[in-house]
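Case study 2.
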Amino acid sequence: MLRTLAGETVSPPPIWLMRQAGRYLPEYRATRAKAKTFLDLCFNPDLAVEVTLQPIRRYGFDASILFSDILVVPYALGQRVWFVEGEGPKLDPVTQAADLGRLDRSRVLASLQPVFETLRRLRRELPTETTLIGFAGAPWTVASYMVEGASGSDFARLKDFAYRDPDGFGALIDLVVAATVEYLSAQVEAGAEVLQLFDSWAGVLSEPQFRRWVIAPTRAIVDQLKQRCPGVPLIGFPRGAGMMYADYVRETGVTAVSLDTTVPMSLAGALQERCPVQGNLDPRALVVGGRALREEAQAILAALKGGPFVFNLGHGIVPETPPEHVAELIKIVRDRNA
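Prediction:
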């Protein structure tokens, strides 16, 4: 993984999967039942270490990603965050600049100490050949939850805030940028070797708004992390960026870019000439398995074999994924004759 992110072409490519620790695994469901809430699971190092290690024990992925959630940052800033079973996250929304007064950056690192303890334990317990990935949500996506108060919306409240009061919304973004830099820097100190920035809702913006609320904040994070954590790779994932992927790579300075399922191989290959790429198998092909999985995976492998490439999904594993299909995918990636 580290060699690939340094620009080396490795065969077979390293593989890990977004949401590789999750509800599709029976051992995860058993561990999840021990925590009262999802945030309790994230903030209990014993349980968080266990669920992070489960897919490594089962599949031997080349990288392990910290088990946590992007909404621990709003929580650490002082926003009320909770999870409703079957509905997802809920937050007391921040809808105007005046609401920023109830957020406090000074409490971020103290609030997230359990996450850093999880990373320290993982660094000790993971196999030496397994890369440890830390992560955070990108400011636009984190702000979407902070303003909307939930997921799955049409982003009307979020976009209205950004258009109506760009200075006030910019203050929120700046606050999330600062908190994210502190959070990710502390993750590196605790043992993370690679960082990933998830911008799950980057694709809902117009080009000017994408530049302002996705590219510029990401660039700020990258620049500050390069000063604080020189040499630590950062993977950007601007899901849904479409034709803006190239500008994102060029203007943010990310080490590598993770591609969503919609990115064609022609664009992926062009991006690969600038930096390592990661992706981008459709998670539904992993659900179906068999011929569909083989054909989709092998097409990606064939298209991107000539440059630095990390095999992954175009988004996270979905809960209904059969665990044996994940093992099948690993075999395909590691054995081109599969």
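Residues 14-249 form a domain with the TIM Barrel fold (CATH 3.20.20.210).
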